[in-house]
Amino acid sequence: MLKTIYLDNSATTPVAPEVLEAMLPYFRTDYGNASSLHALGQTARRAIERAREEIAATLGASPGEIVFTSGATEADNLAIKGLAWTEKQKRHVITSRVEHPAVLRTCEWLESQGYDVTFLDVDAAGRVDPEELAAALRDDTFLVTIMAGNNEIGTLQPIERIGALCRERGVTFHTDAVQAYGKVPIPVHAVDLLSASAHKLHGPKGVGFLYVRDGTKLLPLVHGGGHEGGRRSGTENTPGIVGFAKAAALAFGELASTPKRMRGFRDRLIDAITQIPSTRLNGHRTESLPHIANFSFQAIEGESLVMRLDEHGIATSTGSACSSPDLEPSHVLLAIGVPLSMAHGSLRVSTGRQTTSEEIDALLEVLPTVVEELRAISPFKVGDARCTPTE
Ligand SMILES: Cc1ncc(COP(=O)(O)O)c(C=O)c1O
Q: Is 152 in the pocket of ligand 1 (CB under 6 A)?
């Protein structure tokens, strides 16, 4: 069987062998409940607290500022709802149009509960304008939530500047750093709340954390036995937490090398793929995460492209399909002003620490032919306006 060339690492990553190795004892032998008093329980407790210290160190934080969760969706919900529920007077939240659904849907839910949410527009590269954000701040704004790096197009946000504006106005600042954590330096000093997820950096699925700056008050989403300092009840996922710490140690240990290699791959992809006629890069050329590159091809459905590449053993992802009325194009691509026709023909290529130069070569070898073949059978022609009402 053909070995898959996996270029969908912003969806999830393979667990690193070292991570699996570190987790196995907590399934096999050290399976105690970390709340139990016996030796097995205390072994698990020590492992969790060691992991908490290691993860805190990656952020220059103290261990008590790390709350383990079931992933970043929960961490985002805890940050946003948990803070909103502590507020008695203030009702206003600011976010952007390009956030992950874990933030967008949570903010929309707050709106349904009577809160007021401002969804900031972004520029053509996907960046929030700090001046616009400053102008949107109100006396009753209690939260700004803006992601560190975008999961679809990779664009980095001016987190430091946004954090400074929030600090000046006494507003809590949350950042979803799921794609940025372990890939680019994050100015944690500018942030009050930060979400991350293990499975995006070669750790296991189903474990994440929320960094909660000392003094930031949150109400829990999950009530029960009072785990995680009462901020997130539920028996701790010992193997997952240990695996997350190992994955973080690997990523931060390689911070000077792996992201650089990924950026080299990204540059090569951009240089080669934008040579294909009627193709564009989505997102910022340089102010970007190193591992994500997103392209649009005119007169092609992204889904068809992904399926054809899959037949060649190459796993990638897309936005949405042009001809299918119930498939919405990506909200991120629409927010950066990509014409509808091109938003439907998008391809996201995302690399991981296992990605090799040969794998990038393999994609670049088949992609132009696949694009040509799909255009030849497409009902839409390059430059065709039928699918391009906004062009
Ligand atoms: C930016 C961003 N936020 C949140 C999430 C959700 O993370 P999890 O899968 O851990 O719930 C993801 C993953 O798709 C993401 O890319």
A: no
- Ligand 1 centroid–CA 387 distance in Å is 31
Is the CATH number of domain 256-377 3.10.129.10?
Answer: no
Q: With cut-offs at 50, 70 and 90, classify the pLDDT of residue 326.
A: low
Sign of CA dihedral 102, 104, 109, 115: positive
User: What pLDDT was estimated at residue 386?
Assistant: 44
With a threshold of 0.90, does the pTM exceed it? yes
Which residue's CA is minimally distant from atom 7 of ligand 1?
72
Q: Would you call 322 a catalytic residue per the annotation?
A: yes
Query: What DSSP designation does 200 have?
Result: G
Q: Which atom of ligand 1 is nearest to the CA of 200?
A: 13
- Please state, in angstroms and rounded to a whole number, the distance separating the CA atoms of residues 266 and 260: 10
DSSP annotation string for 231-293: TS-S---HHHHHHHHHHHHHHHHTTTTHHHHHHHHHHHHHHHHTTSTTEEEES-SSSB-SSEE
Q: How far is the CA of 140 from the centre of ligand 1 (A)?
A: 28
Q: Which CATH class for the 17-253 domain?
A: alpha beta
Model confidence at 121: pLDDT above 50: yes
Task: Looking at the CA of residue 73, tell me the nearest atom of ligand 1.
Answer: 11
What are the sequence ranges of the domains in the chain? 17-253, 256-377
Q: Do residues 191 and 324 lie in contact, with contact meaning Cβ atoms separated by under 8 Å?
A: no
